[in-house]
Amino acid sequence: EVQLVESGGGLVQAGGSLRLSCAASGFTFDDYVIGWFRQAPGKEREGVSCISSSDGSTYYEDSVRGRFTISSNNAKNTVYLQMNSLKPEDTAVYYCAARPGHSVVVFTTPLNWYEYDYWGQGTRITVSS
Predict the structure, then answer these.
(1) pLDDT in tens, 55-109
(2) Could you give the CA distance from residue 90 to residue 38 in angstroms, rounded to a whole number?
(3) pLDDT value at position 21?
(4) In this structure, are residues 40 and 92 in contact, taking their beta carbons and an 8 Å threshold?
(5) Separation CA 62–CA 96 (nearest Å)
(6) d(Cα 101, Cα 58) in Å, to the nearest integer?
(7) Which residues contact 97 (CB under 8 A, 6 or more apart)?
(8) Nearest-CA neighbor of 3 among 121, 114, 82, 124?
(9) Number of neighbours of residue 103 by Cβ within 10 angstroms
(10) What per-residue confidence (pLDDT) applies to 25?
């Protein structure tokens, strides 16, 4: 059974940091790209970042580039999202998801959510001003 389990959400003040984890099981970790997405109340789901555990390639949306860092621990089948300098507009439910692939650089659209096959249940982040 495929599972993606997010953890690490919570309440933080603006300017603070959080680290999210996404633990994957039930599929070959190296054969998938793991992405982070978020959805704020009343807004559409948007991509945040993704990583290939196979070649280490990464991609970030402009809104988080320079503040967020995605990484992968292949021994633990876990992907992390380190979020620094958090802003109130980062408030959302964050999801991790998996799509087949060995490199982010070959994707024309690395963070199209409908191209991801498996999804976690989400973890909520609230950034207070």
Answers:
(1) 999 999 999 999 999 999 999 999 999 999 999 999 999 999 999 999 999 899 9
(2) 9
(3) 98
(4) yes
(5) 18
(6) 12
(7) 4, 34, 35, 36, 37, 113, 116, 117, 118, 119, 120
(8) 121
(9) 13
(10) 97
DSSP letters spanning 81-129:
EEE-S--GGG-EEEEEEEEE-S-GGG-SSTT-GGG--EE---EEEEEE-
- Residue 94, token pair as written in the block: 């964050």
Identity of the residue numbered 127: V
Q: Please check whether residue 6 is in contact with residue 95, taking contact to mean a CB–CB distance below 8 angstroms.
A: yes
| pLDDT one-digit tens code per residue, 20-29 | 999 999 999 9
Amino acid at 6: E
Specify the amino acid at residue 9.
Answer: G
Tokens at 47, concatenated: 């991509």
Helix (H, G, I), strand (E, B) or coil at 12: strand
pLDDT in tens, 5-47: 999 999 999 999 999 999 999 999 999 999 999 999 999 999 9
